[in-house]
Design brief:
- By secondary structure, the chain is an alpha/beta fold.
- The protein has two domains: 268 residues, 3-Layer(aba) Sandwich (Aldehyde Dehydrogenase, Chain A, domain 1); 184 residues, 3-Layer(aba) Sandwich (Aldehyde Dehydrogenase, Chain A, domain 2), CATH 3.40.309.
- The protein has 14 helices and 27 strands.
- A hairpin with a 2-residue loop joins strand 16 and strand 17.
- Helix 2 runs antiparallel to helix 4, helix 3 packs across helix 4 and helix 4 packs parallel to helix 5.
- The structure holds NADP nicotinamide-adenine-dinucleotide phosphate and glyceraldehyde-3-phosphate.
- NADP nicotinamide-adenine-dinucleotide phosphate binds next to helix 7 and helix 8.
């Protein structure tokens, strides 16, 4: 952190409806991953300011929870409209801050507006239920239980850098429409995009205190936030190690974790290889593989492996590489440390005998798309999540072997199965230990109303619009005892 005089590009944090500089006097430089220059500074706030934000959130939530669903819906619809109005400005910031192509950045903003609207619509159509006591043996007809969903209070929303707007709003929208207040701690690399998203929310005139954005490094204020007695629920998306640390600290607080992945693309002998390769390439290399749902290994039947690898190589040769401003698919990684990590995986595999098909070229944090064939189980790249543009191919001799290697992973986010045999596809899907299995398609989260689930090291609980609404509310039972 620097303590320089704040230049114009210093963004304030948002507390009780006001934009503020931190009393710490500290700011954090945000360096663009491809411009390699500081594009702005965000406030490194103090723990006292965290306390203040949580205090105001609780005050605001009491009133917000009492307002009607329709009233809350109006604010959220306005927020979605403001995001659409600001899409060019926000997309430009996303591109500069996290190095996503301008087209993908714009898609992220528009997808977010759609997600907010759908979340509102879903909430408007969620109803409670009632039960008569005499539906249980010996129960009485005079007892009627009314079961409703009520908000949890103050939700702590922590997204990762790679979808700084969409994965933040996927937490804020369900929390808000359900009557919760939010403390939003953006990823530091992604904080300016998050602030821009909150500017749109500010324009929608939400009540003061209902959303507060607290900026600061996770290593400085993360534990303090997670352990804070004023937090009633945590929705976290990020790396598995951070998630595990957070889960230990959160103790009894309701928690949804969406974490890392090592999604396999399983290619059966009977697959349409051209079709499969299209999904594998887009799955593995879009945004340089910096997606939790990227295809991060290919498990291909040995009888079609040569052909598949040849097709993949041809497609990789044509992948546009370079600056996100020119709409390239493979762009510089978020920072040099990430590029070093990916390079280490490539080096280890080559050293242990993997065949380099294409790639292994690097320019600072830009790693060219890399395809490694004949990857074996002793290589680190067979198991670790690279979050970069490297795709290992592991040859297998049967479905059973593919399933065994797929399930040996510590992760369990998604998997793809490519085959023309729908029965085999279902047999494999049933045996794969992941939250979702895609048949003849790339691994991906959307559409955003589908349940999105990570198991094992990939998470706990579920996202997806309806699931998020459920996780940010709890059931409350009121029993009416009628006169007999
Ligand atoms: P990360 O390093 O784990 O950071 C995620 C978030 O946690 C950031 O906001 C970070 O803040 C914060 N954080 C760090 N330390 C913390 C602490 N002690 N307490 C509370 N919060 C803390 O992950 P990332 O590099 O941003 O994202 C990449 C990872 O996210 C990959 O593993 C990817 O697979 C995963 N991911 C998963 C999903 C999914 O839905 N399954 C979606 C997207 C990404 P700072 O930035 O300030 O450190
Ligand atoms: O990075 C993780 C995201 O949840 C992936 O979303 O599949 O829409 O790219 P996506």
């Amino acid at each position: 952190m620097s303590t320089n005089v704040l230049p114009l590009t210093a963004y304030n944090f948002y507390l009780n409806g006001e934009w503020r500089k931190s009393k710490s006097g500290k700011t954090i430089n945000i360096t663009s991953p491809y411009l390699n220059e500081v594009i702005g500074k965000v406030q490194g706030i103090t723990t006292e300011e965290v306390d203040e934000a949580i205090y105001y959130a609780h005050e605001a939530q009491k009133i917000w929870a009492e307002t009607s669903l329709q009233e809350r819906a109006k604010f959220l619809y306005k927020w979605a409209d403001q995001l659409v109005n600001m899409q060019d400005e926000i997309a430009e910031i996303i591109m500069k801050e996290v190095g996503k192509s301008i087209k993908d950045a714009k898609n992220e903003v528009v997808r977010t507006a759609d997600l907010i609207r759908y979340t509102v619509d879903e909430a408007l159509h969620m109803h409670g239920e009632s039960m008569r006591g005499d539906s249980f043996p010996g129960g009485s007809k005079s007892k009627v239980a009314i079961i409703e969903r009520v908000p949890l209070g103050v939700v702590l929303a922590i997204p990762p850098f790679n979808y700084p707007v969409n994965l933040a709003a996927a937490k804020l929208a369900p929390a808000l429409i359900s009557g919760n207040a939010v403390i939003f701690k953006p990823a530091t690399q992604g904080a300016i995009s998050g602030i821009k998203m909150i500017e749109a929310l500010h324009k929608a005139d939400f009540p003061a205190g209902i959303v507060n954005i607290v900026t600061g490094r996770g290593s400085d204020i993360g534990d303090y936030l997670v352990e804070h007695a004023g937090i009633n629920m945590i929705s976290f998306t990020g790396g598995t190690n951070t998630g595990i640390r957070l889960a230990k600290k959160a103790a009894m607080i309701p928690l949804v974790l969406e974490l890392g992945g090592k999604d396999p693309g399983i290619v059966r002998e009977d697959a349409d290889l051209h079709e499969a390769s299209k999904h594998i390439i887009s799955g593995a290399f879009s945004y340089s593989g910096q997606r939790c749902t990227a295809i991060k290994r290919v498990l291909v039947h040995e009888r079609v492996a040569d052909e598949l690898v040849a097709i993949l190589k041809k497609k990789i040769e044509k992948l546009p590489v370079g600056s996100p401003e020119e709409g390239n698919t493979v762009v510089p990684l978020i920072d040099n440390r990430s590029a070093d990590f990916v390079q280490g995986l490539i080096d280890d595999a080559i050293e242990k005998g993997a065949t380099l098909v294409i790639g292994n070229k690097r320019d600072h944090n830009l790693i060219y798309p890399t395809l490694l064939d004949h990857v074996t189980e002793d290589m680190v790249v067979a198991w670790e999540e690279p979050f970069g543009p490297v795709l290992p191919v592991i040859r297998v001799s049967s479905d059973e072997e593919a399933i065994a290697i797929a399930n040996q992973s510590e992760f369990g986010l998604q998997a793809s199965v490519f085959t023309k045999d729908i029965n085999k596809a279902f047999t494999i899907a049933n045996k794969i230990e992941t939250g979702s299995v895609q048949i003849n398609g790339r691994t991906e989260r959307g559409p955003d109303h589908f349940p999105f689930i990570g198991v094992k090291g990939s998470g706990m609980g579920a996202q997806g619009i309806r699931k998020s609404l459920e996780s940010m509310t709890r059931e409350k039972v009121t029993v009416l005892n009628l006169a007999e």
